[in-house]
Amino acid sequence: MSLDQSYLSSSVAVCGSLMTPPLMTREAFAVAVGLPLGVLTAQAERGYWPQITVGRRVFINVEAVRMKAAERAAEFTL
Question: CA 4, CA 72: separation in Å to the nearest integer?
Fold first, then answer.
């Protein structure tokens, strides 16, 4: 496993807080959110999760998921 792959598939600790990388492999993202890999893959292929293809590798855009969750959370603030 190269340095780039290990960075993309694991979390990075920064200044005592836990920060997720901007891109994660489907496998790593499935583990992180607790979904079976087959379910996550099917959802990503249907467009439910933002994904980026680099060569033959497919990554989930975690930053886009985080931004969308923040937008939706702002809709429901009191």
Answer: 31
Q: What's the confidence (pLDDT) of residue 45?
A: 95
Instruction: Report the C-alpha gap between 9 and 59 in whole angstroms.
Output: 9
Structure pTM? 0.70
Distance CA 27, CA 20 (A): 15
Among 22, 42, 24, 44, which Cα is nearest to 32's? 24
Handedness of CA 9, 58, 38, 30 (dihedral sign): positive
Q: Determine what percent of the chain is predicted with pLDDT higher than 90.
A: 68
The letter for the amino acid at 53 is T
